[in-house]
Amino acid sequence: MRYIKTLCAMAALLVALWIVPAQAGPAPVVVLETTMGKIILMLDERNTPETVKNFLRYVDEGFYDGTIFHRVINSKDMAIVQGGGFEYPMKRKRTYAPIKNEALNAKSNDEGTVAMARSTAPDSATCQFFFNVQDNPVFNYKGPSDPGYAVFGKVIRGMNVVKDIAKVKTGKKGMYQDVPREPVYIKKAYRMHG
Fold it and tell me: Please, what are the domains in the chain?
């Protein structure tokens, strides 16, 4: 009888461990030290695991250190601050292969979120990202023919810095539009631990 009770208890424990999902650790937090101040991001591993993994790979390798915010658009229709892919003066950095667009599972492109930039091809995001300075519903997933841009985190401190960057004067630099006239650098990007 004791043997049967032990077996039942062990079976119940195994079923419980299989059914109950493992608790995830705290969400990753990344600090971007810019020439205009610090921006602190909390990343959304739950909804965009591959996007977060990709972004953290670049962060951990120091890829973003010394890059610039190369695109600033601040209009009533759209307001973004984009960076992560260029060094001054508009020298494109070499990247890893593109990742799958996770916009279907992602949160909305609301003010204070950060999303992956990409080309017109849905699965073309590599290292570039942008801050939503205002709600930008035009970037949300609407279906396979309008796949949106994957939000993978939010600003938890330093949104004032993002808004200050959004106010800089911009112009044309070579073939690029909306480039800040005075470069704004990401001096260092790193994970915040503890």
Answer: 26-191 (2.40.100.10)
pTM: 0.87
First and final CA of the chain: distance in angstroms?
49
Alpha carbon distance 119, 128 (integer Å): 10
10-residue averages of pLDDT along the chain (194 residues): 52 40 75 98 98 98 98 96 98 98 98 98 98 98 97 98 98 97 98 85
Residue 2 identity = R
